[in-house]
Amino acid sequence: MPRPADSPAPKAGPVTLAMVARRAGVSPQTVSNALNSPGLLRPETLERVSRTIDEMGYRPHRAAQTLRTRSSRLIGYGIRPTAPGAPAPVMDRFLHALSQAADEAGYRILLFASPPGTASLDGHEELLDLHSVDGFVLSGTDRGDPRQAWLAKRGVPFVGFGRMWSGRQIGDWADVDGASGTDAAVEHLVALGHRRIAFLGWPRGSGVGDDRADGWRRAMRRHELPVRGRRAHSVDDIASARQAAGPLLDAGATAVVAASDVLAMGCYQALRERGAVPGEDVAVIGFDDSPTAALLSPGLTTLAQPLEAVGRECVRLLLSRMATPGAAPERVLLEPTLAVRDSTPRLPGG
């Protein structure tokens, strides 16, 4: 019977795997292989099937995939609260990049609360028992971190955003080369005529902080510049950094390289308390390129971390570890880039 003119058109059903197979001119098994085992297909077949999947907007049924592959398609990530006084959206940017990369690979990031401070195992065993996550992404991999050994002993795949600073290298990781970044910061300042270049970092013992301090020291020694009395330490807090920067400024530093944008903001405050102007009287360089850096007056020269690339590498490394559990660990070190703004002036005559 013909449909009345005023009745609604029937809704198109969801795109199925069989529909994709018919459009691409292949078997349903070939489409399944393109999604789950692309290495089994010839490149031209994989390209044709993938193009058809994109054109038709096909999305695999996750519940069916889970039953078939015994995979939850979930990746666990413990998220910690931001420390007071530290406006640090850097990890938010990483998490967005990580989630996007995981989604493109057909996975979801399952967040769970991780206690502040030292890394712990809280939440990891529960996620394995209740949600059967396929693996974990770890951040904040400081010395004494128990998570890597615990996961490795249980055969649970994991990848670190950050090196395993304990000295015992376990597992795969992707990290930003902090030493390369602070080395480049010193080179930039030397080219502008600065010679009294101080470093404002975190207390010794932090893997990331020590790495960034090492790059500053390496570049200073390469240029035969003094480092004694030109280093100060602070927790990642603006008020604490303001106090720590004082002795560096009193000692006549014409430039300060900070281990984070938060520490650089503390240096800004210390300069203003002395009636000095950041970017005119003393050059300041931060690290992280947080959104605040460009909004400061003057705009803060800082090192931008390639967080999108780190997120993609973490997902790639984790999926590779799931596919080949016995493969040798892979480590990826990515370089930051210097975002130059008005806080690094050329010295008169420099």
TrEMBL record:
Domain HTH lacI-type, chain residue ranges per copy: 15-69
Keywords: DNA-binding, Transcription, Transcription regulation
InterPro entries the record matches: HTH_LacI, LacI/GalR-like_sensor, Lambda_DNA-bd_dom_sf, Peripla_BP_I
Gene3D superfamilies: 3.40.50.2300, lambda repressor-like DNA-binding domains
Keyword Disulfide bond set for record: no
GO molecular function, one term: transcription cis-regulatory region binding
Superkingdom of source: Bacteria
Keyword Disulfide bond listed: no
Protein name: LacI family transcriptional regulator
